[in-house]
Design goal:
With about 270 residues, the chain is of the alpha/beta class. It has twelve helices and eight strands.
Length: about 270
């Protein structure tokens, strides 16, 4: 089977493309979730990677689960309630935690519809930019099911409980203008500009020492469920680690010398 993720490397930036365009990049196989989780683990281990762009092939970012399989009660949706619960835990519910655990900054380049699980995956990324024709929907309830990929935790933290309730309980899609108004995406750009803009933004992030962006991301993530004083204790520890890296010393020297730093990810 052809890999679900197509991986391209551009210096310290990795572009990962979900590659099932005929299925709108739906997560329809156990292997797809395994592949995404394994990719996150690999990127975490590779300290030369400083930014990631996640996007979709064809007309969609990710259509969530495969509705044909849902209708046929096959694949992930086959068997008893106990079996289906286990399938969710073993597949789609791997993806959000894997992205959350990944300390490399991830930009979701939403090239088309991000629906259900597709929106949840985008929400698990750090920055979202979208094509101005794309739509976003937390649409589970329209099929008589509930947010299964982490959206019930992620969406209220991104756009607040009222707007998250509107999206989750109606299941209705929102366009780029509404997504910008909600703060769900950072930018909306013409479709032709989406990937170039995502790459540009990724390279801007990747121009900074990787240890600093990784630890800053971790600090922000942990801060969502942490007392302020505890966060400050963690920040002090991360800062001490940062002060003892070669790239910190090089960044300071380059700043003082008004030159571009030469980073070694050390």
């Amino acid at each position: 089977m052809e890999p679900f993720l197509l991986i391209e490397r551009d210096g310290p930036v990795v572009i990962a493309t979900m590659n099932r365009p005929d299925e709108m990049n739906a997560i329809s196989e156990f292997a797809y979730a395994d592949e995404m989780a394994a990719f996150c683990k690999e990127m975490q281990a590779d300290r030369s990677v400083r930014a990631i762009v996640l996007t979709g092939a064809g007309k969609g970012f990710c259509a969530g689960g495969n509705v044909k399989h849902l209708a046929a009660r096959s694949g992930l949706f086959e068997g008893s309630a106990w079996n289906i619960r286990g399938n969710y835990r073993a597949t789609v519910q791997q993806i959000g935690p894997a992205l959350a655990e990944l300390e490399v900054p991830v930009i979701a380049a939403i090239n088309g519809p991000a629906i259900g699980l597709g929106l949840d995956i985008a929400c698990a990324c750090d920055i979202r930019i979208m094509a101005d024709h794309a739509v976003l929907a937390e649409s589970y309830v329209k099929l008589g099911i509930i947010p299964g990929g982490g959206g019930a935790w992620l969406l209220p933290r991104l756009i607040g409980p009222q707007r998250a309730a509107l999206m989750t309980l109606t299941g209705d899609a929102i366009n780029a203008a509404k997504a910008l108004e909600y703060g769900l995406v950072a930018e909306a750009v013409p479709a032709a500009d989406l990937l170039p803009r995502a790459r540009e933004l990724a390279q801007t992030i990747a121009a900074n020492p990787g240890h600093a962006t990784r630890l800053a991301k971790r600090l922000m993530r942990e801060g969502q469920d942490m007392k302020f004083e505890t966060l400050m204790q963690m920040a002090a520890a991360f800062q001490a680690i940062s002060h003892h890296t070669d790239d910190h010393h090089e960044a300071v020297d380059a700043f003082m010398g008004k030159r571009k730093p030469v980073l070694k990810d050390e």
